[in-house]
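Session log. Operator J.P. requested a structure for one protein chain; no other inputs attached. Running the standard single-chain path with token output.
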Amino acid sequence: MAIMIKSPQEIEKMRRSGQAVREILNYVRGLVKPGVTTLDLENAAAARMHEMGVKPAFKGYRGYPCVLCTSVNSEVVHGIPSAERTLREGDIVSVDTGVVIDGYYGDSATTIVVGQKTSPSTQKLLEVTEESLQRGIEAVRAGAALGDIGAAVQEVVEAAGFSVVREFVGHGIGTRMHEDPQVPNYGRRGQGQKLKEGMVICIEPMVNVGKPGVQVLEDGWTAVTEDGSMSAHFEHTVAVTADGALILTQ
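Structure written below.
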């Protein structure tokens, strides 16, 4: 497993990519409301990327057709934007996107409530998933193990009675969207690859209200919960420093 260590200059370039991703996600968040289709969000994000002069990271990646992944309700990840998918009051939509600037990638995801209200269990799901990401980030520092991150995420999720998706994990990132190492959202403290200063990773808990099982639909991309329960997804790109994590997509 070849772990790529980034120089401070490379991390600064990745911070620029990360900031662009954050700007696009904030822009899309402002458009999410009942009656909007996920293709509306896609078209707006693609136009915004064009205006900003940044290259979309997802479009064309392994044949993926869009600049966003939009996963609604029981869709876990990799939902393809569609004119047929209209958002309704109380839905949740996870929006995942990435860009490339000067050859360096940024990648982030957030889950957004559609409209003003959702069920208490769904609201709790979003809060717990976001908190699990925060705890995972807090476990990052040079000398820590990948298992420290996974355990931190898993403990928060399972203490709330939810489950962590196993099939999809976080990843290293740099001049490619997916680099080593894989970053699971479960694990045991002290186990696995040791983190080194200059590594850049994406931590991205995917959390289900019900059981952890997922299946991929016939489109070859969209992953849904096997039991039809709600799922949330939050992600940040972070650099490993001697003092802890530097969040590049903050």
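Operator note: The mean pLDDT is 97.
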